[in-house]
Amino acid sequence: MVHWQWFLYSLIPFSIILILILLFIFIKRHRGHGYFLSKFSAFTRIRFNHLEQRRQTYCPANKNCQCHTKHSSSHIEPNLSCTHRSPTLYMSFAGAAMIVGGVRTTEWRGSISQLHDKTNNQFDVLFLTDPAQCFYLQDPNYQWQGLKYYRNLVQIYSTLYQHIILIGASLGGSMVCMCADLATISIAFNPILDPTLLGLPWRIMGAYCPKRQAHIVREQIRINMEKIERKTLNHDCVLHIHWSQLSTADQRQAHRIIGDGKAKNKPKQIHCLTSVLDFNINNQYMNSLIGVYIWFHRCARHALAMHLKRTGQLIPLLRRHLYLILRNSIDNTSQENEQQSNTNNLSLSLNIQETDEHSVCLTLI
């Protein structure tokens, strides 16, 4: 009887281990590119090559561009000899999509395309995701060098494009703020400026980083805000932060820099802000290209960008922020079309004149 009890007791842990192994095999074979494996990676911080191949997706406007290899997603290095670049590069930092709804490698793609409907979509996009779900602080080698890795990436691209536009939400918005001093325009929705203020649900989902790494997030964002607001950069730079005014999670983050929170959250970065305003799409600062602006929306959801998109407010908002760049794109497109039209007319006039050199009505104009 004693032997049977011992056998049963030992069978329980063995069964649990076996179930976990079978579950891991099932996930790796059938859903390795989606929700389960990304959530497992988020919890364990284990590097999976299948996820790393979706860390970065480069989409040039020129469909004939073959300057970037298909296997460069985990360590993409810009090809300096590429001649197909557009004037503008968007860098999209995905939020917690990997652990919420699986791997979504092209977050913001639809919205960005709508912005350029009248400019023939002359823009390139680099879509980025965070397989480890730790605020992009893990580099592809998982050595906690993510901040250096992504800042170097933005810096290199800033020398290759006229305009660099960063956009992201939630933990993606955090990295937008951490690289904002290197870009032309940075737009962050519900950024998490201090990961230590996240509640238990976020930690369960895996979007969490140790305190020593959270300190890096806070410090880099503070430094960037000071650079932008004090105009110590050698280029125009603006950071727009959008928060949900009625969201408890967003209130915690906002109190870090604008005050009105608990005693321990006294404002430490208020001098780094240009203005803190309730959102108004007609506000003159919406299309500013210099400064740090905080915008509060009458919304109770942390997923503010999704709410704005469903209510038809997101595209007009982005158009206002990017007004000057979009206007220049339209002007450039119009000039190109006009030049092309003049070239065609010139060719037509020359051809006609050659066929009838005696007609005074066919003079070259």
Describe the protein.
- The protein has helices at residues 2-30, 35-44, 49-52, 97-100, 109-115, 146-158, 171-179, 200-205, 211-229, 248-258, 304-310, 314-321, 323-355; strands spanning 56-59, 88-93, 124-128, 163-169, 185-189, 238-244, 275-278, 291-297.
- By secondary structure, the chain is of the alpha/beta class.
- The protein has an 8-stranded mixed β-sheet.
- α7 (171-179) links the parallel β4 (163-169) and β5.
- The longest helix has 33 residues, at 323-355.
- Residues 333-365 have low confidence and may be disordered.
- Keywords: Membrane, Transmembrane, Transmembrane helix.
Strand content: 5-15%
Helix content: 40-55%
What is the number of helical segments per DSSP (H or I, 4+ residues)?
13
The top level CATH class name: Alpha Beta
Our count of domains comes out at: 1
> What order do the SSEs take from the amino end to the carboxyl end, as H and E?
HHHEEHHEHEHEHHEHEEHHH
How is the quaternary structure best described?
single chain
What is the 3D shape?
A: globular
Kindly identify the CATH topology.
Answer: Rossmann fold
The strand line-up of the biggest sheet is 1-3-2-4-5-6-8-7
Overall mean confidence score, pLDDT? 78
How many runs of DSSP E, i.e. beta strands?
A: 8
- Content-based structural category: alpha/beta
Largest beta-sheet characterization: 8 strands, mixed
Whole-number radius of gyration?
Answer: 25 Å
Amino-to-carboxy terminus distance: 109 Å
Task: Furnish the topology, listing elements before pairings.
Layout: H1 2-30, H2 35-44, H3 49-52, E1 56-59, E2 88-93, H4 97-100, H5 109-115, E3 124-128, H6 146-158, E4 163-169, H7 171-179, E5 185-189, H8 200-205, H9 211-229, E6 238-244, H10 248-258, E7 275-278, E8 291-297, H11 304-310, H12 314-321, H13 323-355
Parallel strand pairs: 2-3, 2-4, 4-5, 5-6, 6-8, 7-8
Antiparallel strand pairs: 1-3
